[in-house]
Amino acid sequence: MAFNIGLSGLRAATSDLNITGNNIANAGTAGFKQSRAEFADVYASSVLGTGKNATGSGVLLSNVAQLFNQGNINYTQNALDLAINGNGFFQVSNNGALSYTRAGYFGTDTNGFIVDNTGNNLQGYTVDANGVLQPGVVGNLQVQTASQAPKPTSEVGQVFNLNSTSTTPTNSPFNPADPTTYNSSTSTNIYDSQGNAHVMTQYFTKGTSNQWTMSVLVDGQRPDLDAANPGVPYSFDVSFDAAGNLVSAVPVDTLVGPAPGTPVATPASVTTTTPGVLDFGPGSWTPAVEQPAGSGTFVANGSTAAATGFKFDMRGSTQFSSSFAVNSVSQNGYTTGELAGLQIDETGQIFARYTNGQSKVQGQVVLANFANVQGLSPIGKTQWVQSSESGEPVRNPPGSGTLGSLQAGALEDSNVELSDQLVNLIVAQRNYQANAKTIETESAVTQTIINLR
């Protein structure tokens, strides 16, 4: 009996040594979760059960438990390295075969798919053909590496303050080349359908009390490219109330052109239906280019404005007793852009950054969690698969419910504590030696009996 007891002890100590050695070997493996040997004693039993004075029959390895406590977060320089701070696993796919991992070594393959260092596809919520995120639709995440197409400007927003102490210029008529014919000016870039930038300039001329004239040119030309009046701007009456708040901005029907007394109408396609919002409708702006360069002659460049024109929103502008200033400016057009980098936020949304200053969502990483993570089956390469004991995976974006947050540009270190493992190694070694001594002692006792005469 003692031989069997000692042998079971040797087997248990060997398993403990193997498990501890495996933990030590993977102390530097990102996302690795250490294991623990769990032992149980053995008693021989009969039909009537074990007696109260029964002698034990040894030890057995009852379970190898995985410890899923958090590892340290180690920051890297790779934007696609991902670490989970809290509960959850990355879901990866190998041609449809799903597995789960905490190792966040990710990059892109030749087709732009996000893959781990073994070639498995990272999964999450994908985007549709229009680039709209599809929550609930889980698939392989892919980064669109193609250039971003330009977008013509359809909305311009600007909030400014005009100095109420300004006086009407003594020189007239308005001439954009003569600063003495207007009080203030400002410029904003707008874009055509080919992504060409054009400079829209506004000139403000003080009129009567609380009333200003705003003159608008694009690239120094009349926006509709009227060949007969190339330098004649669109003109608008901008009015403020006694408190200095904007009341209205309406097109002026006529204005004096370059030749004194020549009336030039602002096109009917420029309208206003909301106070402070000017609607430059279709045909009110023709994108142009100077041809030849330096000639001062502008011709249509072959592109178009936005199909609906663009709206110019001045609501919130004021006329106070302070210097002219533009407080905010925005517009929604942009030129073509090349992929400049990727950014992933704490909720797992992946954004592509382009050289034109724009960003576009590419998808969203989802995390999976299980009712019993101890029931997951390890398959190597720091991956697990579900089993009947683990239950079905529950998938949600990072930070949802009990799921952890996502840290981009970082990796989760192994949760192995080397000092603990080295102590365990010594203990396992002592156990092995002690059980070997049990067998040696039983052998000596047996030899003594054999030698009886």
From TrEMBL:
SUPFAM superfamilies in alphabetical order: Flagellar hook protein flgE
Domain Flagellar basal body rod protein N-terminal: 4-33
Domain Flagellar basal-body/hook protein C-terminal: residue ranges: 407-452
Region Disordered: start-end pairs: 386-406
Residue ranges constituting the Flagellar hook protein FlgE/F/G-like D1 domain according to the UniProt record: 83-131
GO annotations of cellular component type: bacterial-type flagellum basal body; bacterial-type flagellum hook; cytosol
Cellular localization per UniProt: Bacterial flagellum basal body
Primary localization class, coarse: other
Domain of life: Bacteria
Ranges where the Flagellar hook protein FlgE D2 domain occurs: 161-334
Coiled coil: none
A Pfam entry, by short name: LlgE_F_G_D1
Function: A flexible structure which links the flagellar filament to the drive apparatus in the basal body.
Family statement drawn from the similarity comment of this UniProt entry: Belongs to the flagella basal body rod proteins family.
UniProt-recorded name of the protein: Flagellar hook protein FlgE
Natural source organism: Pseudomonas marincola
Taxonomic path: Bacteria, Pseudomonadati, Pseudomonadota, Gammaproteobacteria, Pseudomonadales
